Amino acid sequence: MAEEKAGYQYTLVVGPDSPDRAWLESVLMRGGLEVAACTEAEILAMPDVVPPQVVFLDDSTAREERMASFANLKAFPALAGVPIVILALDADMDSFSGAITRGAAAYLVKPVAAEEVVAVAHKISGWLRSGDRTEKRRRLRRPLLMRVDVEVSGRAGVVPGQIVDVSGTGCRVELQGPVERGDVVRLTLYGVEGSTDLSLAAEVRWQRRAPDGTQVAGVKFTGTTAVLAGRLLGTLTAHS
Q1: Pick from 23, 61, 86, 113: CA 20 to 30 A from residue 136's CA?
Q2: Closest CA relative to residue 28, chosen from 2, 54, 63
Q3: Starting from the edge strand earliest in sequence, which strands make up the sheet with 106-109, in order?
Q4: Using alpha carbons only, how large is the chain's radius of gyration in Å?
Q5: Angle in degrees, CA 233, 236, 238, rounded to 5
Q6: Contact yes or no for 11/125 (Cβ under 8 A)
């Protein structure tokens, strides 16, 4: 039975029984995912929950209530370490940054395209299944999906990309253009409505091309940036 539970992979949708939650369930199932759904009160009252791969918190309340629900889910033992994606109505920077700094894996604003929801779910599920990181590395990192622009020192222009996971010392970025090992770079972070005007200095420690052709780079934050990055990207909160 324990082996059966360990092998059961599904996505959990948490939110009030509403048309929004029904839509989210339907989208994820059409995207090829096993889905379960319940309210916050229901999940917190379950004594024996098989941990999901990803939780989607579907929430249309004010920021304070939403973050209280998020904190309750993070503190629930059965969901310890499970990535949580927040879907909310608020598109302001405070709502976005507040979710990310507290450890959300992604923050999506409703209404959101079905394709984006499915892509986020598969991206995070794929990160958890990936065999190119040891269990030790997995514990030190957490998935985080955030758009960035990457400026390479001494090179004109920027390379668009997306952070896919973070640790206390660096992050992994998928890029739409090449970078080289040793490049000194600056990552400009984006929120839901555009640039945050916040940048992080880093150095490219490795780069490779993934099987699907995506350019992937591991960067290490330099100088005092590591402390700032920990606060902005939620690694200090997530592992404190």
Answers
A1: 86
A2: 54
A3: 35-38, 11-14, 54-58, 84-88, 106-109
A4: 18
A5: 80
A6: yes
Q: CA-CA distance, 73 to 79, in Å (whole number)? A: 7
- Residue 129: the pLDDT is 59
Confidence label for 89 from pLDDT (cuts 50, 70 and 90)? very high
Instruction: Report residue 206: phi and psi, to 5°.
Output: -160, 160
Q: Which two tokens stand for residue 90?
A: 């608020």
What is the domain count for the chain? 2
Q: Per residue in 183-207, pLDDT tens?
A: 999 999 998 888 888 899 999 999 9
Q: Write out the residue range of the structural domain in which residue 223 sits.
A: 135-239
| Run of H or E residues at 7 | helix 2-7
Q: Is 42 exposed, middle or buried (0-12, 13-18, 19+ CB in 10 A)?
A: exposed
Asked if 73 and 165 sit in the same domain, the reply is no
Block residue for tokens 């091309």: 209
Q: Are residues 33 and 110 in the same domain?
A: yes
- Read out DSSP for 12-47? EEES-SSHHHHHHHHHHHHTT--EEEE-HHHHHT-S
- 10 & 43 share domain: yes
Residues 119 and 139 in one domain: no
Say yes or no: 83 and 163 in one domain: no
